[in-house]
Specification:
Blueprint (H helix, E strand, L loop, with lengths): L1 H41 L2 H4 L1 H19 L3 H23 L1
Helix pairs in contact: 1-3, 1-4, 3-4
Length: 95
């Protein structure tokens, strides 16, 4: 019985540590996406590259929604897509 309890505690601790990692990874990715989107917005992305602007804004909104629902993996994925769209938009604005 002691061995089972030890294994259960180890598995529980491991799963809690993984969920914490996902939380912070998603939170950091959302911050990076917000910063990138803010730069795109400041560069006039809404009028110069509307597709990338709308994509970045939509993905960022979806990321925040998933984060609020504690789905950190999906939140990070959408934040990464938002950041990618913002980066592409900034490249288009600079052309």
């Amino acid at each position: 019985m002691d061995r089972r309890l030890t294994i259960l505690i180890v598995v529980l601790a491991f799963s809690l540590s993984l969920s914490g990692c996902c939380y912070f990874a998603a939170k950091n990715e959302i911050k990076a996406a917000e910063q990138s989107f803010s730069e795109l917005k400041g560069a006039g992305g809404a009028t110069k590259v509307p597709y990338e602007y709308c994509s970045a804004e939509t993905f960022l909104g979806m990321s925040k929604m998933e984060f609020n629902q504690s789905d950190y993996r999906e939140a990070k994925k959408f934040a990464t897509q938002s950041k990618s769209a913002s980066t592409a938009g900034l490249a288009g604005v600079k052309k």
